């Protein structure tokens, strides 16, 4: 698959910038709140949270930048897929929560993560194609 024709190339670039930028931003934002993120992960029963959470920052930041810049997009998308496939059911297990408001918030986070996982799968599917505006 080759995305070279205008306006498809420009739309693809905008989509890459939006998706990759948001992913990298989330990684940096989470990293800046690392202590709270690690504690929350521990409270949900994540094993080795002190190691797993920082690794998740790296997956989001490098994966996001790879998608944004079009640099090693298949590797970048696999990192993002690994992040969302692991984090989403483990950290946003809304089905285990009794409080309706908290359950609703976790369900929303679960669904947002699922949508981002789907986006990363799309990137992986077209990752071997020639990307316009990429090195």
UniProtKB/TrEMBL annotation:
Keywords per UniProt: Membrane, Transmembrane, Transmembrane helix
Subcellular location: Membrane
Gene Ontology cellular component terms for the protein in this record: membrane
Membrane topology: Multi-pass membrane protein
Keyword Transport: no
Residue ranges crossing the lipid bilayer per the database entry: 12-32, 44-69, 75-98, 110-134
One family name in Pfam for this protein: DoxX
Protein name (record): DoxX family membrane protein
Top-level taxon of the source organism: Archaea
């Amino acid at each position: 698959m080759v995305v070279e024709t205008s306006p498809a190339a420009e739309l693809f670039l905008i989509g890459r910038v939006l998706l990759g930028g948001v992913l990298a931003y989330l990684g940096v934002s989470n990293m800046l709140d690392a202590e709270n993120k690690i504690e929350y992960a521990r409270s949900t029963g994540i094993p080795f949270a002190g190691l797993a959470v920082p690794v998740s920052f790296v997956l989001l930041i490098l994966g996001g930048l790879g998608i944004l810049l079009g640099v090693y997009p298949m590797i970048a998308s696999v990192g993002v897929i690994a992040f969302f496939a692991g984090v989403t059911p483990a950290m946003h297990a809304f089905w285990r929560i009794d409080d309706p408001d908290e359950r609703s918030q976790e369900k929303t986070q679960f669904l947002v993560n699922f949508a981002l996982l789907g986006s990363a799968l799309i990137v992986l599917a077209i990752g071997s194609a020639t990307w316009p505006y990429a090195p």
